[in-house]
Amino acid sequence: MFSFEDLKEREKSSFVLDKSILRIICDTGTICLSAIRQNIAHLEKALGSKIDLDQIEKICDKYAQDGLIRKV
Question: Which of 3, 32, 35, 63 holds its CA 20 to 30 A away from the CA of 54?
Fold first, then answer.
């Protein structure tokens, strides 16, 4: 079971990942998932955990569904 502080920390790291991916996409234009993965490698150190490609793809799919980005 998670404490409130644990949940708050997990939410904060999810927010950082979401916004970092959106910033990378906006700054670079058309970009593939593996390139996004390379660009967020520094976040792995900061968050202290490995970020898998499936997680990145889910975030990109969410942004595409919301109309913020376009999948090509």
Answer: 3
Q: How far apart are the C-alpha atoms of 20 and 15, rounded to whole Å?
A: 8
User: Secondary structure of the chain: what % helix, strand, coil (to 5)?
Assistant: 70, 0, 30
Say how far apart CA 57 and CA 5 lie, in whole Å.
27
In this prediction the pTM is: 0.61
- The label of the residue with tokens 């916004």 reads 19
- pLDDT beneath 70: ranges in the chain: 1-2, 4, 6-13, 72
> Which has the closest alpha carbon to 21: 33, 7, 8?
33
Q: For residues 14 and 32, what is the distance between their CA atoms, to the nearest angstrom?
A: 20
**CB-facing half-sphere around the CA of 18: CA atoms within 13 A:** 13
